[in-house]
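Sequence in, structure out. First:
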Amino acid sequence: MNLKNSYNFNIDDDADKDLSVYKLTKWGEFCLKSKNIANPFNESAVIMGHVLKKPLDGVITSYNIKPAKNHINLFKKLIIRRSLGEPYAYIAKKKEFYSTHFFVDKSVLIPRPDTECLVEETLKEIERLQKDLKRKISVVDLGTGSGAIAISIAKNSSNVIIYAADNSFKSLEVAKRNIIFNGAEGKVVATYFNMLKPNICWINEPQSGEAAGSREPAPKTKLSGNALYDFDIIVSNPPYIKTGELKTLDDGIKLYEPLKALDGGKDGLKFYRKIFELAALAENPLSSASKKRKSLILEIDYRERSAIEHLYNEKFKDIIFKQIAFINDLSKKERVVKILYG
């Protein structure tokens, strides 16, 4: 049997019993290379590690081992999926972000290293506020997806409560799973919120005295959009790809990741416009939120810095105290906007 000439070799083929981890990994490399997947041997080895439940160095030390038929079959299927462009994170259903592992599926975006600077800046702001306020800091993460941002903040700060908010119930299920897996139940609350319809919001959490493990659904506590924004910090990585640019994205993104979580409208500013409006609205003199200064920390497309600044000047023009700053990522690109106001 010529492995190089076949994606779909027969699992019952007598030749399969002679296949070693190394030979299979080389076959995987060929398949991925033929589809222009970058670093094909490393990708193949990582997939082999996933199948064998071994780290990369464990794959290397297992080169001469002959895998079981079920492992061969699974490896073959996963290599084909990866060769077709499916991101490895969806294949393995996991992704590391900010030194923490998260479950991901196709209902949420794959967390990316560029977003880690959003977490860094939020942690700095929490530390600053704790020195001044001497109390628990409240944070809302808008469009939480997998919960990676909220959970990373919670795991690296003390005395905080974070509401991981999303308008997708499927995303919130993923976030809840990650909250439990990472032991963040005491700090992070999965929250339904639709920023485009800010009066529709509720938080599902057990009430005092509710039996642990109860199958009864927790009561829904309804909040208004104005109340939701009564937080010390609003953090978000909102959709910011222009609708017309979605078709230009790599196939691995546009064919597999949820486009709804990427589509920022015609000018890419749809959600920034709404977040700025709601944040400024919370500064109404009748709002309790107006009694304290707050922080708005958002990931941005570095190409839209001037548009974001213009929008800030428009939406926050009536706020007495306001400051804006742009923070670079590791590539020296302006990735985060930080606004202090109140």
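Second:
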Amino acid sequence: MATKNRGILKSFFETGKRPIQEEFENLIDSQLNIEEDKASEADAQNDQIDNKYLTPKTVKKSIETFATVKKVNNITPDSNGNIVVTNVSGTASSITGTISKNQVTGLENDLNNKQNVLVSGTNVKTINGQSIVGSGDLSVSGPVKLIGVLSSNFTLSNSNTSQNAFPPSSDAYTLTANKTYFFKGKFLITNGSISHTTAMGWVATTGLNITSMEYVVQIFSSALNGISTSSSVQVSGVANKVLNATSSAVTTTIEFEGVLRCTTGGVLTPQLAFSAAPGGTNQMKVGSFIEFTEIGSDTVQTVGTVN
């Protein structure tokens, strides 16, 4: 007995023929038998068997054996094929279909609590006119100041020639091109008792071009710890300007304040000149200072809102 294909089996029963026992056996063996040909669970997991039929139960076993089950975030589906995802990492190149925000647990509430889109100049302030939106750093600083303050007495020469008022460590003020500066200072001077006048001025070097320098000076002369006499002088430019009448007072205080404008940058150095050598020990005393504060371009007229 053996299994035969349909053409051979049909030939056994052609008109006028009488099938024999073996042909009937071949017919029976070539048909599916519900009792004998059902695949067991073991048969369903054996990929070498090709003559058994599968029931729903054995189909499931066959799929569990041979199908490749994908994992999500390294999570394997449960016995019902479900996956519970609590944390999703990575990115997706595309998502098809539509997902409503209320279908994602907590998403709608999170979105409702988010801040509105930030807009530069509307709900994001600027710093010195620069938006803080974007990458990189913002440079935040106040007005540029140049300050020299003596921390010890500086010895002045006993002569009647121009000399630097401050020591080399604090006598060169580098000004920037196309700027306007407020400047002020105070000189605390002790000098000999030989009668003399006192003048102050400035030396511009390294290309500094000052288009205007206007300031007011007040000078006080007195005996040490004595009552002083004073005078005021309005000064234009950098040249030495005599500030007082001849005096033999041994202390001199000079206060000055004004505005300077320059078109090219360079170095400005303060100077003093006595009309005669004062004699004795002459000093620029500790606490004397000079300050330059940049306020804008060389043509600035207002800073801030000025009507």
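Remark: The mean pLDDT is 86.
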